[in-house]
Amino acid sequence: MPTDHSPPTPVVERLVRRVFARRPPLLDFIHDELAGGLVLLVATALALVWANLGPGMYESLWTWHPPLDLLHLDLHGWVNDGLMAIFFFVVGLEIKRELVVGELSSPRDAAMPVIAALGGMALPALLFLVVNAGSATERGWGIPMATDIAFVLGALALLGPRAPSGLRLFLLAVAIVDDLGAIAVIAVAYSSGLSAGYLALAVAVVGFVVLLRWLGASRPAAYAIPAIVLWFAIHESGVHATVAGVAMGLLTPAQPIDGRSVIDELQHRLHPFSALVVVPLFALANAGVVIRGDTLGDLTGSRVAWGIGLGLVVGKTLGVAGAALAAQRLGLGRLPADLAGRHVIGGAMLAGIGFTVALFIAELSFDGGTLAEAKLAILVASLVAAAAGSAVLLAGRTLAGRRA
After folding, report:
1. Which terminus of the chain has fewer Cβ atoms in its 10 Å neighbourhood, N or C?
2. pTM of the predicted model, to two decimals?
3. How many domains in the chain?
């Protein structure tokens, strides 16, 4: 029998193949998130180093206004309001696909991740509100609700066989529901000064997109101009502009049209760009926190930091694991067959890795020193959650081996 002695494929070539090769949508999503998690980690480290070695240069770059400043947005604003609309569009596509033809399309299969996600959103928000009760910092209650699936999948990939495949699918489904909740929070709780005229324009554009769908338009190019107009209308309406991306994602048909799967085609084209370019740029623009000698000391006395830390580390663990195990005990949902209680607890701890959306909501909630405290608390709490979840999953594997 012939043996293949070809040399191993270089890392860069494997990455390129992963980005551009056709794969099933769920595998596409997971592979792009894993690669994106690595780039995101590098971008975060670079932002921290840059902000501390050259704070003046870092600040001046992101506060720079382009020559044609029609919307009065600096570079930081274009990243957060403009490019992040693409990220939320991809999130909207994934939510739509999962709700219609994916893991969340069956009420019985969707029950468990929905219940777990609701627990993992409600308890962190409640803990934050308890810690910050009676102060202006209550506004940040949405920060610890978010889970960063790119970093979670990265942690699971490093754990290898110690993290069952069922845990990846369970946490991915939880994160999708979590994203939907975060989008609702951004749209409702972080909107201000609403303009009825621009909201009416946004509604009209949505109606036009629905009409295009009814007429059978399946080419993505047909929706490009309506998408830009919708983004502008929502930006000017007082609702955060990224909601336009979610709306367009949810309006995308999940079922094939004329034999073409529009939603899969868009995901295949845009998800690598979102994961490998947009989100790392967001991290580069937002994760730069100046760390001085007394910074961590100040953090221990910050109600915002404690609210975020308890929310992400304790609230996510108790919320996700408690809700999931209670739902299973009550027969309200079912966990994947290869998951034991320790997997659920370890996975719930990993769900406390809040980064992209957590930083995004922090930017909407605070400014100045409070924002810096919130960002640093997100980074520290996410590291603690990653270490704790990994330790539980590793310890569980060791104990199982000893019993055998």
Report:
1. N
2. 0.80
3. 1
